[in-house]
């Protein structure tokens, strides 16, 4: 999302923009264990943590199994083990200081061993110079920490709104990095003209291959039923079509048509419908909606959540990607799908002022005055019958919380909207509130607790007990 947003900003400012994807050769196998420990100490991970990392990377023994026989064990003193859940974390520690050598004017994005550089400037010559200097600095850094860049697996893409390829080369160790018409960033192919055609072609081909595999599960008179097939289609095919919807929803209808044809074939297959079945009938039979509409809904949900975040938590909150302000009219029309979510807010009569602001999470358990109980009290057992639970609750309250003020919260969602309530049982006071239907019950349960704290907990010298039936909210707190 940040990658796409950076491209949009540069193109809206009519700047030349070039992006480079750098590949580290045998990244995990080339990690220097002592370097990981050194950098762990730099970020404050000392003592037992640093000692454990050193022991984990230097004293592990390996064996090779071949034809049912094991080789002699040997010790590996280089690299981090592949397939281990902690290896990406250790590799991230190893690369954490790479950002310090990136010069101003160049944006560096790193995800594990994927390094992406974006450089934009009104002058193409300045872009070339900055990008080449940055790559040289990264190359020197890699040599210092015993890593090596592979120019043959790296790519450079010109994302400016010009069709010709720049007449210069970017090199790594005197080897030219090949120019490409697209770049793969975290599973999404970004075409040079930002049309996403390459990505949709790749996903459509992959989805059709999976559909061919699923056809082996059913015949004309035998096989899985429609419910199971629908779940398989959604899990195996629809999921890859929706991946990256926050970005791909900006593509045009022509590009989305490629995936929608595949989606229609999947729905006809799992419902056993003939090819001539009208699309509205097919959607009615399966209970599904258009793939692009669903992806747009996912994109809207993503952007709404970011508008509830503070700027330091959301790098795209005030970006052109959210509002499309400042873009040329022709470019704004190309990405007109981005304004659909603003129309959605207008149609649902929701203002930006209605967003619940994100509150920085506080470690409540460290406060001596706050305790959160989720399953450690006698009555917090779901398998106990309700009458017995009520007796256990009353007994515990009378014994342990006799002098405390008891508060309860609840929330529900119906056809009319989302409602919440907070009840001060001790003083018999009740507060009710309705939220917009787009909110979930989880959000309403959290708001109910927030309102109860703000309205009912006012005297610091008293003890309060706040009861909620939302285990997910309590665990989140």
Question: In words, what does this structure look like?
Answer:
Keywords: Nucleotidyltransferase, RNA-directed DNA polymerase, Transferase. The structure is a single chain. The chain has 3 domains: 1-32 and 78-191, Alpha-Beta Plaits, CATH 3.30.70; 204-354, no CATH class; 361-476, 2-Layer Sandwich (Nucleotidyltransferase, domain 5). The strands form 6 sheets. It has a 4-stranded antiparallel sheet, sandwiched between helices. A 4-stranded mixed sheet has the order 15-14-13-16, with helices on one face. The protein has helices at 2-12, 33-42, 48-58, 87-95, 124-144, 197-214, 226-242, 245-248, 253-271, 279-286, 291-307, 320-323, 329-334, 340-347, 386-400, 441-456, 471-476; strands at 16-23, 61-62, 65-66, 69-70, 74-75, 106-111, 114-121, 155-158, 171-172, 175-176, 182-185, 188-191, 405-414, 417-424, 429-435, 464-468. Strand 9 and strand 10 (175-176) form a beta hairpin. It contains 17 helices and 16 strands. The relative contact order is 0.07. It has 477 residues and is an alpha+beta fold. Residues 319-339 have low confidence and may be disordered.
